[in-house]
Amino acid sequence: MGFIADSLNRIQPSATIAVSTKARQLKAAGRDVISLSAGEPDFDTPENIKAAAVQALAAGKTKYTDVDGIPELKAAIVRKFARDNGLDYKPSQISVGTGGKQVIYNALLATLNPGDEVILPAPCWVSYADIVLLAGATPVFAETTAQHGYRLKPDVLEAAITPKTKWLIFNSPSNPTGSAYSWDEMKLLTDVLLRHEHVWIMSDDIYEHLIYDGLKFCTPAQVEPGLFNRTLTVNGLSKAYCMTGWRLGYAGGPEPLINAMRKLQSQSTSNPCSITQWAAVEALDGPQDFIAQNNAKFVERRDLVVSMLNQAKGLSCPKPEGAFYVYPSCAGAIGKTSASGVAINTDEDFVTALLEEEGVAVVHGAAFAGSPAFRVSYATSKDVLEDACHRIQRFCGNLK
Length: 400
Ligand code: PLP
Prior knowledge:
Elements: H1 6-9, H2 15-28, E1 34-35, H3 47-58, H4 71-85, E2 94-97, H5 100-111, E3 117-122, H6 126-134, E4 138-143, H7 154-160, E5 165-170, H8 183-194, E6 200-204, H9 220-223, E7 231-236, E8 249-252, H10 255-266, H11 274-285, H12 289-310, E9 325-326, E10 336-337, E11 343-344, H13 347-358, E12 360-361, E13 363-364, E14 374-377, H14 382-397
Parallel strand pairs: 1-12, 3-4, 3-5, 5-6, 6-7
Antiparallel strand pairs: 2-8, 7-8, 9-14, 10-11, 13-14
Helix pairs in contact: 3-11, 4-11, 5-6, 5-10, 12-14
Bound molecules: pyridoxal-5'-phosphate.
């Protein structure tokens, strides 16, 4: 349609949001549907954070604020980066936006020109490629495999870099695979990046705190301080603090980039919600012990789901180190026919038939540039997960 901008025709609506919406619609129509498609924890926001929001409301913190964050929140973020990541940012190097998504969007839109390339280790989060395309630049997928724990190999990174590369977007623990890097594994990648001075690094650390089995989180600018001046370290409150609906994300990076991001935000959304910002100060400065309690539950759920999916015919599910996703391969189901006679030629066919026949909503791997596979979010109760995995086992068992 001529009225809609060409740039919009380059992108797709978010596949994860589309699957979640379809599952909600089927449920509303009376179908028995279990949705394992959402990228959010089922736990409620901790009470102390809610109380800080109530207090901010009562105190009349209801006006416009500085575009990219109140000074009190920037100070809390500076403390967080120093405490958790050994990164020494100044308040002028901090940007706060309406979710990690806006921060990433601002950074890409503020820096990309047509012809620029952005390296995305695939499978990767659905939005990176679309934001890059919206900016008129080119996503370059650098493949990772289940055999290597969905971690990018240094030679694959090296081969993906060209004179046109502007950014590498790095995401550990990862959405959709849950894979995470150890310090030594990351060092091999930062060694490559150190040699290519024109490449900037965007590290999306939004799943930082959701890391299991004793693995210690690390981030590129911490592992290689030589990259600090060309790294944007992105984080947010949605996942570990169970605050998806509050919309708050932030980043630390070089001042000229932070200033450009502020300029863009000043002409779009202006400041993130004033009340959310005060709640965020409490989230970052307040008690953190609920994170370990939630993680203990996530580990139990992950282990249940991995074990049950590996018992499903034709599926193979690695056990990831972080986030709340597993990413089973459905290669063994491709070429088969479902109980109701649907040909399963792609992972999209697989998830569509699974939703139709067994009422389980998961997201196809093609949406993450990683096929044939699908993403299961285990951020729901064990009873529900057990029911869903039994249905998946039955669906796979019926494939002919
Ligand atoms: N980055 C990754 C990898 C994500 O999975 C998400 C959310 O799903 C985001 C960023 C953005 O989260 P938010 O905008 O809620 O901070």
